[in-house]
Fold this protein.
Amino acid sequence: MTYLAKPRLLADVQPRNAIGFTKRDYEGAISTLCAGCGHDSVSAAIVQAFYELDIEPHRVAKMSGIGCSSKTPDYFLGASHGFNSVHGRMPSVATGASLANRELTLIGISGDGDTASIGIGQFAHAMRRGLNIAYIVENNGVYGLTKGQFSATADKGSKSKKGVQNADAPIDLVALALQLGATYVARSFSGDKDQLVPLIKGALRHQGAAFIDVISPCVTFNNHSGSTKSYDYVREHNEAVNRVEVIQPRQEITTEYEPGSVRRVMQHDGTALLLRKLGLDYDPTDRNRAMNQLHEWNAKGEILTGLLFVEEGADDLHHHLNTVAKPLNQLTQAELCPGQAVLDKLNAALR
Amino acid sequence: MSSTTPGVRPAPSHLHQVVDCQWACPAHTPVPEYLRLIAAGRYAESYEVNWWSNVFPGILGRVCDRPCEPACRRGRVDEEPVAICRMKRVAADLKGDISARLPKAPVKKNGKRVACVGAGPASLTVARDLALEGYAVTIFDGGTQAGGMMRSQIPKFRLPDSVIDEECGYVAALDVEVVLDRWINSLGALRSEGWDAIFVGTGAPRGREADLPGRAEAAANVHIGIEWLANLAFGHVETVGRRVVVLGGGNTAMDCCRSARRLGAEDVQVIVRSGFDEMKASPWEKEEALHEGVLIRNCMVPLAFEHTDGQLTGVTFEHVEVQRDARGKRALMPTGRMETVACDQVLVAIGQENTFPWIERDLGLAFDQWGMPALNEKTLQSSLPDVFFGGDSALGPKNIITAVAQGHTAAVSIDLFLRGKDVVADRPGDRITLASQKMGIHEWAYDSAISDLDREKMPTQALELALKDIKLELELGFDVKKACNEASRCLNCDMATVFTAKTCIECDSCVDICPTECITFTEDGTDDDLRTRLKAPAPNLEQMLYVADGLKTGRVMVKDENLCLHCGLCSERCPTNAWDMLKVDWQVAHAGSQAGSVGAEAAAVSA
């Protein structure tokens, strides 16, 4: 936490992306979270992802609910649209935003409380409907704003800062998202931007419900030896299944890989995801196997990270609803009120 | 370049080099410290900090060569460096009466007598340092006033006599005897007077001659620049020709041409062999000269003085082209194109030379093949153990601040020599102390906010007034507001970012907040390799990487010192205090300093 804003010196001479913005142009207000909060790293990763994807900040809507994580949209993309909604109700507001203007890039920021507790119902429906959003949960296993009680994602047997053991079973949001039909499901760690940034980029380019569970340690209440969401624990138990490279439609693939080590998944907009397999034998396009492997590793106390599932050629809510290609908020009176003759015809069809 | 072991602070030399201005200053004046004092309105203390380090804050605040400014970090992250030099003058101008702050010489002397030859900056520094240690110091000078070339060569419109009088006076007030009007013409005779040690600070008093055809015939109107300036300073010259040619491209040439303009010359041309950018004169001096209506012409080599009936009529030049070979070595290629520049007077300012006619060659004082005294460059002791050198007379002509630095060095040597110590082995080292500046989660003992103000322009006298009066000081100095603005531009490079790997939890907070992206956590490697893997490119090889290992993941923390703003945000964002801002107080050894050096490691214990 700091009172100082980042100095502007050198800000204008920094490298620019294809549309002429510097990384600083994707930043927001100075964070008021605790020093060392994983959420700030996630914000930095989001800044990096938007910068690398050459997305215009004013064509983005950042949605959130309530909580430490839900504060963070103030700390990135200061020139974007945003809505800080009621606790746990971000998915429905985001759904409305998506329906009203399908041309905006939608990013939702939530936490384990906002999504796995009060907002679990809304989360479930956003996933199953295929809302076109990059839905990021900054998951630290505790309610930081209310001083560190266990949240619904805290592992059974893990300890609070005071030493109390958690007796309740955890909700695994990744498992839930897989089961509910999300078409891009990933898990990552705030302390590993090399992994996280491409995952966010892939999610932003995914057409449909993209969900990333980011384990983001709470330095103040949940970064101790009894925690399973501390920097040390996650580093020791992190099993990455793959590394992702996001290739935009106009980009050439320059990285060379050994044959057979890379899987290429095409997204709707022509973006290619190159998935480089790591040690584990893992198929990220098989939903059932993904769920099984996830459960196996959960049982071992290990954390599977990477792009755990992606559905090639996935589609979204607009496709399901067969809405017009033009954003609804741009439809004019002529299109919305086509006149008496059309109404008469419609009425006649209902008789 | 600079790696540390777990838990150990970066090496003292690393911390020194990060303070670019102080590192670049020959006397290592603690620049950020005195700028902060000015910002706090503590002018007298700021003056004091300067006085201990460079002895002549008021003088240097006007005419220093400013090696600190091209080094200033601000110049790398902003358009212009901090106006470090002129801030010294602010301290001098606004300090009020500081006599109570300046030390007194000990009443009880140590019984040793030291003679200094020449009353320039080097001798005055030696005298200052030694007088405070109880030595009886006598300075001899052939002139009528102390100050040496600061007095005789620098025009009064740049450096008024009153400033020289004041600062030479502070030295004399330390029971230093200044014997003027006494020209030392024999080192042998001086030695036989029984001095315990002799310091030679006689400068580089001979202007280089332009040995060209017609020189003798046109002698009445051709003058050596430094001699002409001295005559001007002491009132022996009051007029100048209407058309003046100045040969040479250094600061003396600038002083000559600007003085000539003030004496009424209408057509003043500085004609230089080299190109404009390669001229030795400080950029700001060239700028001032141009502003005052001087014409600077480049790539012209003088061939002959033209004359009729013993009267100078002009100088003939050949135009040359600057060419560089594959290794970048410069060569001036003749073009065959000649030009005669008509003029009434020529001032020759093409360099200065040392000359030691007064040192008998049979005393045992060794000279090298270039006629310079053979010295140990670290101690400035000559082959006669009781004779020491400093300033322009030691290692060749440089500048005032170098003379001061060499004065300190020679004083340390003289002190050791007279205490029967070895001038090399027993030499005191520099002292460095580190003190944390953290006063709260986001409170610092220094102003960590980064100013985005532009460099203040120095207000000057109106040109028509300045050109009318050769003694009228051109620069007016900064007022309080300008001084505060300028001081706020300092990036406080002496507030070192010091990293403790063992407490780091690798949360990336510092990486994310750093406004210049100078911090990276990555796999270890060589310097060259690391530079290719940093978050922001690190192309400036003159600036070090700060590398720390000992992290839990086995990675290293790499910080490119090049563009660090010392804003302290890394430290504010650090949840475990692995980053701290430690003030580097670096005290260069002076005469009387304790032997041995206190390094950062030892000091860190108390930090």
Notes: Chain A touches chain B through 28 residues (CB under 8 Å). Chain A has a mean pLDDT of 93. The CA atoms of residues 62 and 82 of chain A lie 5 Å apart. Chain A is about 30% helix and 20% strand.
